[in-house]
């Protein structure tokens, strides 16, 4: 009995099922990648930052009777990750609550935070040097939008630099 060609081809991996499976795998990979991106955005999203800021607020009022503050490693990690960013940690929270909180960290946490702050200072200094070199080489034909973006980037870098210097000063004062 002779077998049909489509059955023979399928056994050798030449059928349509093989191609269909590859497409399904690619779609599954895309769905998985999208899901991972959504999870990453959720982990770094506003609710995570807001929770960390609420945690910090409770920490600063922990001596009051009605405040129930409890250590939370995830919220501490969020604060330690985003302290240089003024958009995530407002200036008043940074100076009034975060700096005292950082001073209360154990020695290893202090060392890591100081190292992070020093790296920010070094990166900001290197970026400032590169920016000065780039400004000298700019054409007069640069768009207004490009200049505005450069000015905004420079301002944010200066804020990160200033915050890093404040953290270094506050934490080295404690040790």
Automatic annotation (TrEMBL):
Location of region: Disordered: 1-50, 125-149
The chain positions of domain WKF read: 54-119
Which Pfam families does its entry note?
Answer: WKF
Query: Residue ranges under compositional bias (Basic residues)?
Result: 1-34
Task: Return the protein name.
Answer: WKF domain-containing protein
Organism annotation: Chrysotila carterae (Marine alga)
């Amino acid at each position: 009995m002779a077998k049909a060609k489509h059955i023979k081809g399928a056994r050798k991996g030449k059928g349509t099922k093989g191609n269909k499976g590859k497409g399904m795998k690619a779609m599954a990979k895309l769905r998985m990648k999208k899901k991972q991106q959504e999870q990453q955005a959720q982990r770094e999203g506003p609710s995570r930052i807001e929770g960390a800021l609420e945690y910090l607020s409770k920490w600063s009022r922990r001596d009051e009777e009605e405040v129930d503050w409890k250590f939370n490693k995830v919220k501490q990690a969020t604060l330690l990750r985003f302290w240089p960013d003024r958009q995530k940690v407002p200036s008043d929270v940074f100076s009034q609550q975060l700096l005292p909180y950082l001073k209360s960290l154990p020695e290893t946490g202090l060392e890591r935070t100081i190292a992070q702050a020093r790296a920010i200072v070094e990166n900001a200094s290197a970026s400032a040097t590169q920016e000065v070199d780039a400004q000298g080489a700019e054409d007069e034909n640069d768009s207004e939008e490009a200049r505005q973006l450069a000015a905004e980037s420079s301002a944010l870098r200066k804020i990160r630099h200033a915050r890093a210097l404040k953290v270094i000063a506050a934490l080295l004062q404690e040790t």
